[in-house]
Amino acid sequence: MTRDGQAIADVGRNRPGWRPEKLKEQREAHGLTLEGAGERLREVAGAAGLAAPAANFQTLWQHEQGEVYPGPHYRRAYCLLYRATEPELGFRSPLPGEATRLTFTASSELHNGTQVLAVERALHQLTPATEEVDGLGVQQQILDAWKRRHTGGDPNRPTLLMVGGYAGSGKSEFARFLSQLTGWPVLDKDPITRPLVERLLVEMGSDPNDRHTDVYREKVRPLEYQCLLETAYANVDCAISTVLSAPFVAEATDERWMRRLINRCEARGVTVAVVWMLCDLDTMHEYIGFRSAARDSWKLQNWDAYAAGLDLDLRPVVPHLVVDNRLGAAISLTDQVRQVLGTVFQ
After folding, report:
1. pTM of the model
2. Can you spell out the DSSP letters for 73-103?
3. Which terminus of the chain, N or C, has less C-beta within 10 A?
4. Which of 112, 234, 241, 222 minimizes the C-alpha distance to 183?
5. Of 328, 235, 223, 343, nearest to 284 (Cα)?
6. In the chain, what is the straight-line distance between the N-terminal and C-terminal CA atoms, in Å?
7. Residue 327 per-residue DSSP state
8. pLDDT (tens digit, 9 = 90+) per residue, 2-38?
9. Three-state SS for 217?
10. Is the Cβ–Cβ distance between 24 and 64 less than 8 Å?
């Protein structure tokens, strides 16, 4: 087993509530052989735009026997295949208050009651972290945009929706989910700035994948965020609602930085909403390892040192909403919503 695979297995053995026998129960209840389940896993993953797992029968047998804990791509595919949550499939214990049984049924009808219920349930992940933030208002804006995107017209002011949090917390996935609901464009810092960042680091005599030294933090990182914000302002100046995805660890905790952003948007009639992704160290480590990005090499090789520098209690200094993605709970729910909207099975 590879080192990454061993790490996932080690996490699984320590995962509270892991009951591998439930996978076999689900497979047999659906009348699938191991080979058949593997084929279906690849199909649903591909249809959902996920990294398709190899899903050979030996691996699925190891999952069912508890020899190997399924990685994030397998768990998401299993949940889509069996239309179930991670707790239902025995991957972990549920979070407090987490919905563990979903009875959604995919439908071709536009905006039927089941679809609206699914979206509303997912949007309840956006919970106010401070009293000042209008959580219901932000949820309603997103819901209205989803309902109206094909009929034209939106009664709300344009919104700049910032999705922040540490690496591996689920920012990009949740930002894409909101974009799929609303039709708002996503500006993700990494794909927007990576080519320039890597070339700049090389020109400065550093490693193109450096994300931890003073050279990056002091010379390059500020320019990354300047590029992201200038791109966002181009949309804001045109009153286009936009979703931003970036850590915003330093920015969202800097009252002056946030005030400048909010003031500029307010001057153009644009509302700023801040969403903070909550996550645990094990899940972040798993996500970072799974995406296998070169820029994460230092984090993975020096995980203890990197993790020691994280403040899991860190929150934005302005009114904001939170998404509890500990144990991947929120991202699993967004997968279920994509399924009920017909974006998985069509």
Report:
1. 0.75
2. HHHHHHHHHHT--TTTTTSSPPPTT------
3. C
4. 241
5. 328
6. 36
7. G
8. 444 444 445 445 678 999 999 999 999 999 999 999 9
9. helix
10. yes
